[in-house]
Amino acid sequence: MHIVVCIKQVPDSAQIRIHPVTNTIMRQGVPAIINPFDLFSLEEALRLKDKVGARVTVLTMGPPMAETSLRKALSLGADDAVLLTDRKFAGSDTLATSYALTSAIQKLAEEDPVDIVFCGKQTVDGDTAQVGPGIATRLGFEQLTYITKIEDLNTASKEIVVQRRSEGGVQVLKTKLPCMITMLEGTNTIRFGKMDDLFRAARYELKTWSRDFTGAEEGRVGLKGSPTVVSKVFVPKPRAEKAKMIVADADTSEAMAAAAIDAIFAAQPKLAGDLLARAAAGL
């Protein structure tokens, strides 16, 4: 079984700053990390490797510095890593990114057919949640999104059973492989790397692929293949109104609730009349 995990190196969202004049993200001096949502998918892929003996390949598209994230994934137990890097990929939106990653996955499948593709639910920088489903659509794989648990994987029948979180509760889904899975955050605990894997990650000869090597069409990647345009990035203006402290007559929940209700009605003079009218109308 061959599992591909797509990860992305992103700036640490806790330290991102917005330029006050240009309203663009200031990446200088901000440490780069593996997208936190991708780590849950990586851990789940490694658990399947431990369970059924799968081969795990980690794939990322980005600048040469993204090598750091790939070596981190290798130190956690991934078997192989591929860096998709080319100046012609620069400026790719989610449509172009999913196409480029699909081209790389198809290249990997020429050597060893891919059974499962794992992606993070979304990235903390783009926050679109579009790349995983885009890859599945291009590959013709079944899409299993917002997965909280993999209940069973039958390698003989090539079937997988998962739990998917939905608005109405939890869905139990069963489908045939190959498929694409996005894991929800908090569904597992990221492991610590073993000493042997740490040494192997440091010595690993990273595979670096260009656009030409994957066979991706030039007009479908980078700015040429990206119809999405981000016109502006800005920091929301702080609200001028300050929070009000409500003091209750007594230190009890009933008194606090009554004081809060009185404050709401005082701030919204028409609210009492509206509620009475709705009650009279039976609404």
Automatic annotation (TrEMBL):
One Pfam family matching this protein: ETF
Protein name as annotated: Protein FixA
Main function: May play a role in a redox process involved in nitrogen fixation.
Family the entry assigns: Belongs to the ETF beta-subunit/FixA family.
Domain of life: Bacteria
Residues annotated as domain Electron transfer flavoprotein alpha/beta-subunit N-terminal: 22-218
Endpoints of the signal sequence: none
Gene3D superfamilies according to UniProt: HUPs
Keywords: Electron transport, Transport
Self-association state and partner proteins as the record states: FixA and FixB form a heterodimer.
Stored PANTHER family: ELECTRON TRANSFER FLAVOPROTEIN BETA-SUBUNIT, PROTEIN FIXA
Keyword Iron: no
Keyword check for Transport: yes
